[in-house]
Amino acid sequence: MSGSVASRGVDGAADAAAGAAVDTAAVLRLAQPSARRFAPGLMLGILASGSAVALLAVSAWLITRASEQPPILFLGFAIVGVRAFALGRAFFRYVERLASHDAAFRTLATLRTGIFRRLIPVAPDGLRGTRRGDLLTRLVSDVDRLQDLPLRVVQPLATSLVVAMLSVLTVSIVLPGAGLVLAITLLVAAVVGTLVHSAITARTDREVAPLRAELAQLVLDFVSRLDVLAAFGATAEREREIAQADERLRTAQLRQSLGAGVVAGAVSLLSGAAMIGAVVVGVPAFAADDISGPALALVVLVPIAVFEAFGMVPLAVGVWRQVRVSARRVASVVPVEVPDEIPVAPARPASLPAGPFELVLDRVSARWPDADAPALRAVSVTVRPGDCLLVTGESGAGKTTLAHVLVRFLEHGGGYTLGGVDVRTLHPDAVRTVVGLCEQSPHLFDDSIRQNLLFARDDATDDDLLAALDSVGLAEWVVSRGGLDAPVGERGSLVSGGQAQRIALARALLAEFPVLVLDEPTANVDVDRADALMADLLRGAASAHRAVIVISHTPVDSAFVTSTLRLP
């Protein structure tokens, strides 16, 4: 429990599925919807683009043929075709958007859930090297970017290829030379457009995601530490850093827009070249009566619609680069292999003992991931139900390390048993149902007081919640705030540090952990109230026959302390 109740368990099958997201290729596979979900959107996209090309072709034929003033019966099928293709273009495009986006969003939901489930075994200590702003960007912006794989890469490429091939085939049937010209200009458009776009934006496409993460981290640091920055007059410097990061991101995005604009211009020029080529080939054929006037109009105007659909091909290559960068960043959110310092659930976890839970440490040591030296050395202690162990020591002595070992955030050397069972044989989540941790800086969710407490025990009644709040001296305060529905704000911004600490303590008591670890429980509480709060906490724990481990720099009433552990 880190300011809230620790996770009560993770579905094993979900963990196994989430474990697939360990490299870029795996993330890309997970971001692409299954063939069953992807096929309807692809088929509808082909029908929509095909209807647009057919609409222009039939319209060109109809207008030209109508100018010859034939009997109306000769125009009937073309009139019906224009109406059908006009309606079909709008209908198929609308339904395609529904189908393709539904498939992409459902796939992203599965991917995002898998990523979070993969984070659980290594959080929080396995993520200490990842900055919060960067982590947030990876889990939000980069995952959202992965929806572009099916929507702006795979589907446009497949749709454009199919529509282009059918268009070339149709034009070739009418006039082979015009079909050859259309095929050549489409190929040149794909190659030239891709090369031009890559030359302008290849580097930028790979930089945008990291630049966005850098800006998010700077803004998050600024907002979360605004009070300290203002107190030391450092806001102007940080604002300049944010402005510079924003400028770098804006410049990169403008370069992306420039690349897209240049490619659009190049594709338009080649579209015109295809029309001119069709005229050059078609006029002699028309003069020789090889094709009719309506057929000539068809082969000359069809390239306009074909290139409109084909213009996404060069841009899809740029989007592919961006998607790959985001997939790489998502894959690296957690290490491919869990560090040795982070506990791993055993393949066949042992059953949790029924209790009572005697906690025994035998020469326990531990280190943080990537640390050179152990932060905790040879700690031995026994804590029985009803005991209160006071842990003291200078800063850096390993008090927080010990707390994280107890709740299995960190792996340990030596022996650690709970109720006579080696904790290494238990699932870490099972250990956290017995040993709860309330940290010095608790996290409060942007919700009501009630909801912040219900995370500890979702079946608790209002009377239970008020009793827990009363045990930490917040009963009158809650009434003055308007009751349990009063909001606490983002990260507890609407309450004081001491009140946030008390809410976290009430949450810890409400969870009814047999072993409760309190890390500096009165750090944010007024000095004149700290002793009374500590006395209330320890008195309530003793009455519940609960073991309490108190980590504190300040003295604790010896009447409640059964033993003391001083870390060197």
Model description:
The structure is a single chain. The chain has 568 residues and is of the alpha/beta class. The longest helix is centred in the middle third of the chain and has 53 residues, at 235-287. Helix 3 (35-66) packs antiparallel against helix 4 (76-119) and helix 6 (148-174) runs antiparallel to helix 11. The chain has helices spanning 12-18, 24-31, 35-66, 76-119, 132-145, 148-174, 176-224, 226-231, 235-287, 293-310, 312-331, 399-406, 428-432, 449-454, 462-471, 475-480, 497-511, 527-543, and strands at 359-366, 376-383, 388-392, 413-418, 421-422, 435-438, 515-519, 547-551, 563-566. Strands 6-7-8-3-9 form a five-stranded parallel β-sheet, sandwiched between helices. The model is unreliable at 1-22 (pLDDT under 50).
Task: Write a brief structural summary.
The protein is α/β, with parallel strands linked by helices.
**N-C termini distance:** 26 Å
Number of DSSP helical runs: 18
Main sheet? 5 strands, parallel
Output the radius of gyration. Answer: 33 Å
Q: What is the structural class?
A: alpha/beta
Number of strands: 9
Core attributes:
568 residues; alpha/beta; five-stranded parallel sheet; four-stranded antiparallel sheet; 18 helices; 8% strand; elongated
